[in-house]
Amino acid sequence: MLVVVGVVVACSGVLPVGNAAAKSAAAKSSACARVLGGESVSGPTNTVAWKVGIGSRIGVFDDVPGKTLRPTTWVAPKDAPWLVVLAHPRAEANRCWLQVRLPWRPNTAAGWINAKLVVVEKTKWRIDVSTARRTLTLFEAGKAVRTVSVVVGKPSTPTPAGLFAVAWAVRWNPNDFLGSWVLELTAHSNALQQFDGGNGLVGIHGRGGASLRDPLGSAASHGCIRVANDSIDWLVHTVGQSRLPGTPVQVS
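User: That's the sequence. What structure does it adopt?
Assistant: Structure tokens below.
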């Protein structure tokens, strides 16, 4: 558990006069094409994922809004600078909307944001964590680059399963319990609402001090995924500290 703190494309074509449905479909397609530069944005696949950079406080909607824009809530860079995209974009009222994983409870929290208000980027990286095998695998464009043994949550405080994303990548003290790096996730413990003064945030971190007592390959943590310092150093160096936020993390 942690206590750490576009290119414009023109769409042209000939539409039958009076074909309202076709005109509507073309308008919706153009709304997202203008913002996304014609890119085939979607939820994470085996080979690629999309993420959005949050530059300022923006509205979040439970569903794609119509003409009336009344946000359900707000998300800001302090919550997470990058969020992973969960689905294909949708157009409504001449705006393009993207569904993203939100960095708070519940772990399935998702919402729609205006694509024009964020930076949209593609990432070839994905992290998979298997709690059964107690392993972490880094994938690049669908190919496993390296698999390492990890410590996962014990039965009373299991590591939550689901699709998450890296929220922050923070350099830490190699000799501290959290080891050399802390990758805060958008995941939260389902067993602990609070832990050691924090809100039950789950992350991937190194090992040092007392955390070395639990051997790699064991289920002994409060929900976090512990990785050997040399392994997490390699992971951060390979992906890049600045590119890690928004990287999808699948825990099963």
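Residues 1-28 have pLDDT under 50 and may be disordered.
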